[in-house]
Automatic annotation (TrEMBL):
Keywords: Membrane, Transmembrane, Transmembrane helix. The chain crosses the membrane at residues 12-34. Residues 192-206 have a biased composition (Low complexity). Gene3D superfamilies: 3.30.10.20. The keyword Glycoprotein does not apply. Pfam families: PASTA. Residues 187-206 are annotated as: Disordered. This is PASTA domain-containing protein. Residues 41-108, 110-180 form the PASTA domain.
Length: 206
């Protein structure tokens, strides 16, 4: 039998079909193994753990056969309860395998202390961003006669006068007393008036 006759014979096609069946079976078996090895199709949706306490997180993840790892405590965030989860990784809605660890960060129990900077005789333009960068809030601004306009003369919080180095809770409100910049003008006017008055008196005396 020639090669051409063999390639067109029933025997060749039977063997070719058998080979294809074997290849398909092997591919199917490999895919099944990979699916089993990666737990494909049995993924778990990560729940939203934000605002939950550590105890609540543990209970919730136990039900899903997941674990958690507490990474750190973050600066106090007033939008979240004390000691509750602020951040998590993976994020809510992510698909993970059975037994996966969820990393969390929890809220602290309150604002920490911040040192009041030395801003006396600094301009409002300098003082305001400095205070905000430290986490303070700017409260009432009052003015009193002083040569430098918008220059910080006093700082206070809750009615208590502050000095550089004092400690305040982050997010505290700081009131400012500022210069109105009118002293020089008033002194100049008074000086002119005095000069005019003296001249008048001298002329009358003559």
């Amino acid at each position: 039998m020639t090669l051409g006759q063999y390639l067109t014979s029933k025997s060749f096609f039977k063997r070719l079909a058998l080979a294809l069946v074997i290849v398909i079976a092997i591919v199917f078996a490999v895919l099944q193994y990979l699916s089993f090895a990666t737990d494909h199709g049995n993924e778990i949706t990560v729940p939203d753990l934000r605002k939950l306490t550590e105890e609540q997180v543990g209970s919730k993840l136990d039900e899903l056969n997941l674990e958690y790892v507490l990474l750190d405590t973050v600066d106090y965030n007033a939008d979240f309860p004390k000691y509750s989860v602020v951040k998590q990784d993976p994020l809510p809605g992510a698909k993970v395998k059975d037994g996966r660890k969820i990393y969390i960060k929890v809220n602290s129990n309150g604002f920490g202390d911040v040192t009041v900077p030395d801003l006396i005789e600094k301009t409002l333009r300098q003082a305001e961003p400095t205070l905000k960068a430290l986490g303070f809030e700017i409260g009432k601004k009052t003015y009193k006669p002083y040569l430098g306009k918008d220059m910080v003369l006093e700082m206070s919080s809750g009615g208590k006068k502050l000095k550089a180095g004092d400690k305040l809770k982050k997010s505290s409100v700081i009131d400012l007393v500022l210069g109105d910049g009118k002293v020089a003008f008033e002194e100049e006017v008074d000086s002119t008036q005095n000069e005019n008055g003296t001249q008048t008196e001298t002329e009358n005396a003559e």
